[in-house]
């Protein structure tokens, strides 16, 4: 097996500008309402009466951070297990790709994926997803999301190298705990990052608000 | 909330559950009569088991079996409407090793195949070939078992860790309860419309005086009560509590179950009071059909809410 590839996201550097999302949509020609990558905003905390002056309110534990999320090209992909037709497969380099000619458009992979990485294409009646820009990566270039990131919060590379360099954190709220599908992801946490599955905040931009 | 988004799957799951439930109810009726027939034969009475192995049972069960086949066919056809690229469904059995969707489709095809054999053998019961003698007694239980496996695999499709709203033991439980309540009430309605010829002669009474229709209605009542409880505790109901439409429809569904349950209780009490003229039987038949429609409406609303609540953004 050749070296498996993965993403690293630096949540302490991400400013939530969504340039990665736009770059991805441009590369893949995705119309409004469809995306392979999205930026999840997670925020929480609240207000308490100011002890100095109870007529005023003071912030209490307020936090917000962003995570740029796409297909995690998991080591145990839930989509691949779910797909009835075998249209989804994993390349030797770990990239999960979809063989469109075999996809029946049942959307079961969409239900099974905990990252919301699969996107239904109504024009072809088939599913589509992030392929890690393998056309570029195979030629030694980087995926468009990585190239476009203005704060260098996204990185792609052999996952074992990324893990050696940045550690093994593979989940942060609101992402699901990593042990479910073992995502090929390394996260550099935001200082206010919260434990996956135990977060006290909420997503501030649910999918219905995305374009 | 998009209630009609997964309409093909609502039709598929309900039609298949009605079909399987009817098979289970048919098996219960058959078992009760069979026991009656054998007891009668042992007592040296006329008729006996043979009558039910052959003509009378076959003629009586023709229409219910037809319903089973039509419902399954409608369900399988509806499931194709869910697909974006239906022609690629030919590959749908290639991931049996890990995909519950593949297994569900296989279970559906096996069930439909077994139904076709059962139906064919049932059509000409007089021709007693060797294959028939071996197959005929084994087919109804085999069909019921294949049906249970089908309902089970349909439920397993929704047991996804990524969908906590579905991923609860209450999902298979409620699918099984839908199966039981639709099947028993549908067969009870048919029993009223066309009473069974009795092995011992006289009224359509199984041994011990328990009429199969009453047994079916009692099982249906238990399933309705359990289904109401399962609805209250299902994560789908909790998920929908915040939505005005969702909670109103959940309340409406529970009301339908309550009305159907009360109707059954009335029908279970009445035969004791009124032994039943032909007119009374017709009246009962109409009530049971009305109840079946109420239950179909209840389960359709429930299934639409199930899909609306589960197909949400993971973040």
Main attributes of the structure:
heterodimer; A: 211 residues; alpha+beta; Alpha-Beta Plaits; three-stranded mixed beta sheet; three-stranded antiparallel beta sheet; 6 helices; B: 315 residues; mainly alpha; Formate dehydrogenase/DMSO reductase fold; 10 helices; globular
Q: Termini of chain B, distance in Å?
A: 17 Å
Instruction: Please report which band the strand proportion of chain A falls in: under 5%, 5-15%, 15-25%, 25-35%, 35-45% or over 45%.
Output: 25-35%
Which consecutive residue ranges of chain B, at least 5 long each, have pLDDT under 50? 45-49, 200-209
β-sheet strand percentage of chain B: under 5%
Largest sheet of chain B: none
Would you tell me which CATH topology of chain B applies? Formate dehydrogenase/DMSO reductase fold
CA-to-CA gap between the ends of chain A?
38 Å
Write the layout of secondary structure elements.
The complex is a heterodimer of chains A (211) and B (315).
Chain A: E1 5-10, H1 19-28, E2 38-49, E3 57-69, H2 78-82, E4 88-90, E5 96-98, H3 108-112, E6 119-121, E7 126-128, H4 134-137, H5 144-148, E8 154-158, H6 159-166, E9 185-188, E10 202-203
Parallel strand pairs in A: 1-9
Antiparallel strand pairs in A: 1-8, 2-3, 2-10, 4-5, 6-7
Chain B: H1 7-42, H2 49-53, H3 55-81, H4 100-123, H5 130-156, H6 170-193, H7 212-233, H8 235-240, H9 244-273, H10 278-310
Helix pairs in contact in B: 1-3, 1-5, 1-6, 1-10, 3-4, 4-5, 5-6, 6-7, 6-10, 7-9, 9-10
Task: Give a description of the structure.
The complex is a heterodimer of chains A (211) and B (315). With 211 residues, chain A is of the alpha+beta class. Chain A is built from six helices and ten strands, in the order βαββαββαββααβαββ. Chain A has a single domain (5-209), classed as Alpha-Beta Plaits, CATH 3.30.70.20. Helices cover 18% and strands 26% of the residues of chain A. Chain A has a three-stranded mixed beta sheet with strand order 8-1-9. In chain A, β6 and β7 (126-128) form a beta hairpin. The longest helix of chain A is centred in the N-terminal third of the chain and has 10 residues, at 19-28. Chain A starts with a strand and ends in an 8-residue tail after the last strand. The mean pLDDT of chain A is 94. Chain B has 315 residues and is mainly α. Chain B is built from ten helices and no strands. The model of chain B is unreliable at 45-49 and 200-209 (pLDDT under 50). The interface between A and B is medium-sized, with 40 and 29 residues.
């Amino acid at each position: 097996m050749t070296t498996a590839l993965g993403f690293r996201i630096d949540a302490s550097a991400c400013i939530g500008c969504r340039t990665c999302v736009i770059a991805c949509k441009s590369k893949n020609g995705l119309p409004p309402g469809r995306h392979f990558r999205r930026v999840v905003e997670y925020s929480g905390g609240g207000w308490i009466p100011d002890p100095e002056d109870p007529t005023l309110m003071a912030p209490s534990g307020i936090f917000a951070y962003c995570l740029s999320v796409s297909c995690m090209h998991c080591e145990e992909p839930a989509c691949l297990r779910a797909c009835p037709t075998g249209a989804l497969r994993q390349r030797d380099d770990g990239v999960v790709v979809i063989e469109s000619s075999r996809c029946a458009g049942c959307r079961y992979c969409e239900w099974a994926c905990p990252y919301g990485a699969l996107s239904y294409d109504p024009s072809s009646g088939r599913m589509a997803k992030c392929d890690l820009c393998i056309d570029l990566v195979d030629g030694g270039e980087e995926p468009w999301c990585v190239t476009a990131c203005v704060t260098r919060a996204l990185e792609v590379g052999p996952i074992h190298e990324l893990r050696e360099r940045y550690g093994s954190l593979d989940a942060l709220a609101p992402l699901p705990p990593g042990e479910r599908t073992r995502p090929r992801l390394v996260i550099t946490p935001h200082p206010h990052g919260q434990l996956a599955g135990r977060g006290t905040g909420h997503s501030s931009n649910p999918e219905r608000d995305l374009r | 909330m998009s209630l009609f988004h997964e309409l093909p799957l609502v039709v598929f799951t309900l039609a298949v559950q009605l079909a399987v439930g009817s098979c289970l109810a048919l098996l219960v009726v058959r078992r009760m009569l069979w026991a009656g027939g054998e007891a009668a034969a042992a007592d040296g009475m006329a008729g006996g088991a043979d009558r039910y192995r052959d003509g009378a049972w076959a003629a009586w069960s023709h229409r219910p079996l037809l319903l089973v086949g039509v419902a399954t066919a409608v369900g399988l056809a509806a499931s194709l409407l869910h697909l974006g690229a239906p022609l690629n469904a030919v590959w749908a059995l290639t991931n049996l090793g890990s995909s519950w969707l593949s297994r569900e489709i296989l279970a559906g095809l096996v069930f439909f195949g077994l139904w076709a054999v059962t139906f064919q053998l049932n059509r000409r019961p007089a021709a007693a070939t060797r294959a028939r003698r071996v197959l005929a007694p084994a087919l109804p239980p085999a069909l019921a078992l294949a049906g249970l496996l089908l309902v089970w695999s349909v439920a397993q499709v929704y047991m996804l860790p990524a969908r906590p709203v579905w991923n609860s033991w209450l999902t298979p439980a409620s699918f099984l309860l839908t199966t039981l309540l639709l099947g028993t009430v549908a067969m009870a309605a048919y029993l009223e419309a066309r009473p069974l010829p009795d092995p011992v002669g006289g009224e359509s009474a199984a041994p011990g005086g328990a009429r199969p229709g009453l047994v079916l209605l009692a099982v249906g009542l238990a399933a309705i009560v359990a289904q109401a409880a399962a609805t209250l505790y299902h994560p789908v109901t909790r998920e929908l509590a915040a939505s005005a439409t969702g909670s109103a429809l959940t309340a409406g569904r529970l009301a339908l179950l309550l009305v159907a349950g009360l109707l059954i209780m009335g029908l279970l009490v009445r035969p004791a009071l009124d032994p039943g003229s032909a007119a009374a039987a017709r009246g009962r038949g109409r009530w049971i059909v009305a109840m079946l429609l109420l239950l179909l409406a209840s389960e359709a609303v429930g299934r639409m809410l199930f899909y609306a609540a589960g197909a949400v953004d993971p973040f």
